[in-house]
Amino acid sequence: MSQVQYKIALCQLRVTTDKDGNIARARAAIHAAAAAGAKLVVLPEIWSCPYLMETLPSYAEDIDGGGSPSISMLSEVAASRKITIVGGSVPEKGSGSGQLFNTCCVIGPDGEIKAKHRKLHLFGIDIPGDITFRESDTLTAGQEPTVVDTDVGRIAVGICHDIRFPELAILYRSRGAHLICYPSAFNMSTGQLLWDLMQKSRAVDNQLFVATCSPARDPNSESEYMIWGHSSLIGPFGQVLAAAGHEEATVVGEIDLSLIGAVRESLPLEKQGRGDLYRLVDVQSESAAAGCVARGEANAAG
Ligand SMILES: O=C(O)CCC(=O)C(=O)O
């Protein structure tokens, strides 16, 4: 039975080239968040190393093979504090495949990995004179949307650029998510214009909670990829329930899951929608159902 009301912490961490230092800083921030009463802690996209495609491979960890100091730390802290952690993301070395993924693990209060989300939509942008960035040169996209039942409700996960795709959030709502967590690392170019807008849109369109968590901005960074920051918690009516600035900080907000039902009752968008004119197809459920039909037909024939 999940908790209806609880505190969520967004740890907007400073990230450096020192992986051990990053892990130690994240550990301290999670302990502090738990001490402040958080039952759910969210970390940023790529918090164990800088978000730079050239150096990402050298920091990659084999999560399935157990060779992941970052995830081991999250498991240990989650179990010792009895909290759920949406563990931001770390570069993951696919076991045996040579592929690299941008991967978020959700850890339960028993320290076990409950879900693993590999970023579905790789970020690619080219605005001459402003920003050029292409994750697909280095990373492989994941294949599975992620929804997981936890002690603090049904959580869906997207990583940064995944937030740009409203269909994914609609799918998550249709699968019963209460909260979508988007560990992210928006940049100065698109962050200022769109960060706030997109998290509110995903929350309001689907009448659920949205939590985002970014690394802190390093104003002295020489990287052309400057982080925007502004990790936030948005409620199902678009309310900003907690928000950080751009510096290193942990912000704590309150999630009251009963708000979802209240908002959907006052404004029943699902009933008002025109399913007779448009609808989103859950491709995976459809093909699973088609597989059952096909297997049924084969059984009947055989
Ligand atoms: O979609 C955007 O504008 C930013 C996305 C991004 O920074 C990312 O996916 O890491």
Account of the 3D structure:
With 302 residues, the protein is an alpha/beta fold. The chain has a single domain, classed as Carbon-nitrogen hydrolase (Nitrilase/N-carbamoyl-D-aminoacid amidohydrolase, 4-Layer Sandwich). The chain has helices spanning 19-35, 69-81, 166-174, 188-206, 258-266, 269-272, 283-301; strands at residues 5-12, 38-42, 84-86, 90-93, 100-107, 113-118, 124-127, 131-134, 146-150, 153-157, 179-183, 209-213, 232-234, 240-243, 249-256. The longest helix has 19 residues, at 188-206. The termini are far apart. The structure holds 2-oxoglutaric acid. 2-oxoglutaric acid binds next to loops.
**Would you tell me which CATH topology applies?**
Nitrilase/N-carbamoyl-D-aminoacid amidohydrolase
Mean pLDDT: 94
C-alpha end-to-end distance: 43 Å
Estimated structural class: alpha/beta
Which architecture would the CATH scheme give at its second level? 4-Layer Sandwich
Bound chemical compounds? 2-oxoglutaric acid
Helix percent band? 25-40%
Strand element count? 15
Treating each run of at least 4 consecutive H or I residues as one helix, how many helices? 7
Q: Which descriptor suits the 3D outline?
A: globular
Task: Note the run of SSEs as H and E.
Answer: EHEHEEEEEEEEHEHEEEEHHH
Rg from alpha-carbon coordinates: 19 Å
The fraction of residues assigned to DSSP E strands is 25-35%
| Total domain modules | 1
Low-confidence stretches: none
CATH class: Alpha Beta
**Full CATH superfamily name:** Carbon-nitrogen hydrolase
* Main sheet characteristics: 7 strands, mixed
